[in-house]
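pinging the channel bc i need a second pair of eyes. not urgent but kinda urgent?? the chain im working w is below, pasted from the shared doc
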Amino acid sequence: MKKPPKTRGVPHLPIVGKPAHNGLFQCAIGGLVISWSNNESVFIEMLRQLITGGKFSAQIVWHSQRTAVARLELVSRLCRERVSDKLLIDDITKAISTFKGFTKTRNFYCHALYQYDSEAYLVRATSTTMASDDEPIRFDERRMDAAMANELGDATLRMAEFNRELWKLVVRLQQERTR
């Protein structure tokens, strides 16, 4: 029999530096990641509607692809092969394009180098991307200020709204499958 978890009162959040400033960004980035992940799981459900197999086939196929872009391209190709409703294909294609935009935002914050000032305030996030022209690596640097916090909050809210739209596409895929 499993032991019940110990209760230790109020959980301590490991915020380095100034909690009022740094905690805002850590919470906002966490919200962004959760919203992005929820949307990714709906694309897995779309994949489940497009392939046959066992209980976990869609997850196995999804996670066999190395990148989000490859996973989304797989959904797109299978839609073009298996879905006869051209409007549904167009709507899924638009949704994939929208999600790729959210993926760029999520990737920036999940792979950035975060810099602190001498008082341990988060002051900047720097991300790198591979470039095919000029220098091989491109740097994108953003200040950790109110504008960034608002950008994170807006992206998280837009992804929550987008999630509802994705589920509508899943319902349409299910209907297409039963025809």
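so The first strand starts at residue 113 and ends at 116. and Helices lie at 19-50, 57-64, 68-82, 86-111, 146-177. — does that match what u expected or am i reading it wrong
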